[in-house]
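Entry type: protein chain
Record version: 2
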Amino acid sequence: LGNLTFSADPTNDDASVISSKDELEKLSNIIGIPSDDIVQALTHRSVTVAADDTTFKVHMNSEQAKDTCDAFAKEIYSNIFEWLVGEINDATCAENNFEKSPGGRFGNIGLLDIFGFECFE
């Protein structure tokens, strides 16, 4: 996702296209989603009108598309991190895996996520 580049659509100033086609194909193969679906998800947003429950697809410019891509990457990272911490906790949970010795205590293992997606401008 981080290697995708977006540029303005030459036929529509308010729209964007993914200009890194090779990276798009690699991403499509890795995550198993057709490239057309990825393009649609990253370059358009859905707007629903509450009054008549109508949904419209709206183009995003290249900056909005890049922000959407970054948010998607952050969400994937967050979900994988939460899953990993849960798996580590389940595998190392002394209360579930070992008998406590009389008067003994179990220690804790802490994990600090120091990688961030902060943008300092």
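Comment: The mean pLDDT is 84.
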